[in-house]
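Dear support,

Our group has been running a series of protein-ligand predictions, and this particular one with iron/sulfur cluster is the one our PI (initials K.S.) wants archived with full inputs and outputs. We had some confusion internally about which version of the output was final, so please treat the block below as the authoritative record. The input we submitted was:
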Amino acid sequence: MSYSVLSELEACPRRWALGSAKYANIGGEYGYPPAWNHSVIEGRVVHLSLQRITRALVDSGCNSITDAGAVSTLRDLGGFSKAVRESSKKVLESYEKNPRVEFSFEKLKQHLLTRIPDLRTQVQRQLSRIRPITRTSSKLKSEFNHKDRKDHSRTQLGYGSYPEVEIRSVEIGWRGFVDLLSLIDTECEIREFKTGVPKEEHEFQIRVYATLWARDRELNPAGKIANRLVLSYNETEIEVPSPSEIEISQLEDELRSRTTEVIRSLESDPPEARPKLTNCKYCQVRHLCGEYWHMHLTQTNTHEWRKEFGDVQIRLSHQSGPSSWRGVVESGSGLVVGGPILLQTSHHRLEPKANNHLRVLNVHLSFPEEETGEEQPATVIATMGLYSEVFLL
Ligand code: SF4
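Confirmed final output from the archive:
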């Protein structure tokens, strides 16, 4: 179990199951392909850049980004911009064969490249706050290799800084990846880099990491407690009180009981769906979730759900232009079921037929005036754009 899996399962077991299942007709790998999400992708680029640069600084014995040696280390990496560009390339590679961005990939890629100066600033800002510690064991420099390490290299960590270090507790059955762990005789710091705004759950996450570190018998056989927990955001950093030994034991119990609870939630087949605005708004698999579309049937016309961009299920009736179709709403965010809709599809290679049922995500919705004075509801106009997706039922 990990923090992210627990959070996902507690929010909606169905979402986790649909997102993690194996799909034979889309590559046969575990996991449903993710949709493009700017903030997630930019976060991955920043994290990867921080990981690469921090590792290089630690390996070359630099204790700060302003060290004389840091200049040549960065020069070897090609500078900040090149490091961020390389990370973007790596992240983009993971989307190249993703069918959900097949037609928009080039435009999305161009957009990401325009963001590099800003991402570089974020990376520099985060790096300016760290003070990497040179490792005491030269052996660990070459052997320590984050996620790809073989189990046999999980030995006690010597003094120094370790980017992207995996911590595990076999007894609790949990693991996590700490962005930067720094260890000296008097201090142990766990630092997490965050690219979004501060959230309460980040504090819980870092306290979970403190618990796993304290209970990691291989990397930390003495059970040393982390005495500095830092959440590092773009604009600021927040120090979270580190848990005492008693609090660590309590957190351990909490993790065990929450794990038992979420595993129980997976016993039903299919696992329970928990449709609600906060869960479904950014759900990557909502087009596969019957409960999501059913929920709209009971919540039609609610302004809570009515947004400029929304989701709609349509039954097409006939083509009304080269790239537009008329149909009726079967379900949708704040839409009247059975009401007329005009779907404009200019950006997509869509070849639908009359009576096709479509689920369209992230489509721009123009709502007619509430009071038309007519007996029939006025036509909603749904216009697909770069981030829209369409699925044929
Ligand atoms: S759409 Fe909502 S209910 Fe369905 S899987 Fe996603 S989060 Fe769960």
